[in-house]
């Protein structure tokens, strides 16, 4: 016991002797001489002595502190009031226990205390309490470990549920996007076919316009007349085809219908539908236009000179038929001012 290496009785006589034992009753360290005297002195014969090396550190300061009164730090606790079950010093007795008739000396009441049932019972209870507290500690430790494991398991379960939701949403997304691609492809193909028809008509109309422009620029009036006569039928047919196309055309829109609420996201991400609207602008453009391909009526009936060469090469019957057809054509043309 390094904290009390010297004999305390000797130190009171200003001597320094190395301590070899500890008196549990006197609460002092003793040198060899004092230890021997302790064993033969009638007053200290019953004191318990222990080897100094077996004593815990700071035993002197710890035990000595218990000797002094907590209210009067300069006085030793040496009395016991049985009436109040209180430890007292001399000052406590005069201040608080003056009328108590059950005051006893601490040394008298403490005799044989180490063998008393109270010490045995209290020691046993403390040991049981310690064991119980250890069990409680073990229970709390196991509970903590169980909580940690439950936390890990729940985190894994939540992660698994999250992944399942993600997988489900990805599957719904894939299905909806696939449907969108199919609808888009189908409707796009329809529009592309319509564009092909329009391109074909544009090509025809451009060819006819080029033909008319060419004749108008470089041909005679007769050639212009013949060209107009030939083109009016084809132009009328082409305009009919344009009108049919316009009436058949619809503005195609793909609409996305959102789910009604978030709770339904795990079953559907929404639906697709197509909406066909009339091409109002194209229709209105055509309503105000009417075909008017009537050729101007010639004021005087034209004369036709048939050469002798022609008379010689054609029969009279064929010539008369040609003449009839020609005049019939002109008679059918309405006159326009």
Automatic annotation (TrEMBL):
Q: Which residues form the B box-type domain?
A: 2-52
GO function terms (MF aspect): ubiquitin protein ligase activity; zinc ion binding
Q: Which UniProt keywords apply?
A: Metal-binding, Zinc, Zinc-finger
**UniProt-recorded name of the protein:** B box-type domain-containing protein
Species, as recorded: Mytilus edulis (Blue mussel)
């Amino acid at each position: 016991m390094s904290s009390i290496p010297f004999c305390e009785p000797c130190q009171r006589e200003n001597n320094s002797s190395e301590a070899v034992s500890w008196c549990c009753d006197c609460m002092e360290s003793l040198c060899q001489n004092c230890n021997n005297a302790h064993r033969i002195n009638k007053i200290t014969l019953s004191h318990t002595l222990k080897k100094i090396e077996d004593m815990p550190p700071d035993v002197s300061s710890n035990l000595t502190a218990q000797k002094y009164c907590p209210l009067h730090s300069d006085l030793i606790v040496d009395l016991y009031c049985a009436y109040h079950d209180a430890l007292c010093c001399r000052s406590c007795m005069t201040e608080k226990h003056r009328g108590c008739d059950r005051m006893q000396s601490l040394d008298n009441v403490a005799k044989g205390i180490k063998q008393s049932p109270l010490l045995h019972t209290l020691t046993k209870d403390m040991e049981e309490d310690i064991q119980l507290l250890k069990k409680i500690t073990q229970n709390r430790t196991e509970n903590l470990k169980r909580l940690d494991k439950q936390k890990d398991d729940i985190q894994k379960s939540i992660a698994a549920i999250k992944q399942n939701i993600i997988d489900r949403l990805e599957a719904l997304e894939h299905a909806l996007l696939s449907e969108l691609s199919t609808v888009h492809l189908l409707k796009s193909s329809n529009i592309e076919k319509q564009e092909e028809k329009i391109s074909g008509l544009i090509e025809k109309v451009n060819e006819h316009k080029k033909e008319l422009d060419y004749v108008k620029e470089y041909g005679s009036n007769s050639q212009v007349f013949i060209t107009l006569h030939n083109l009016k039928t084809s132009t009328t047919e082409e305009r009919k085809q344009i009108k049919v196309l316009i009436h058949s055309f619809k503005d195609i829109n793909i609409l996305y219908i959102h789910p009604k609420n978030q709770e339904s996201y795990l079953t559907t991400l929404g639906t697709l539908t197509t909406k066909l609207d009339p091409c109002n602008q194209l229709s209105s453009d055509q309503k105000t236009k009417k075909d008017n391909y009537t050729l101007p009526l010639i004021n005087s009936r034209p004369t036709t000179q048939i050469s002798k060469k022609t008379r010689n090469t054609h029969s009279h019957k064929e010539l008369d038929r040609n003449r009839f057809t020609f005049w019939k054509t002109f008679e059918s043309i309405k006159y326009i001012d």
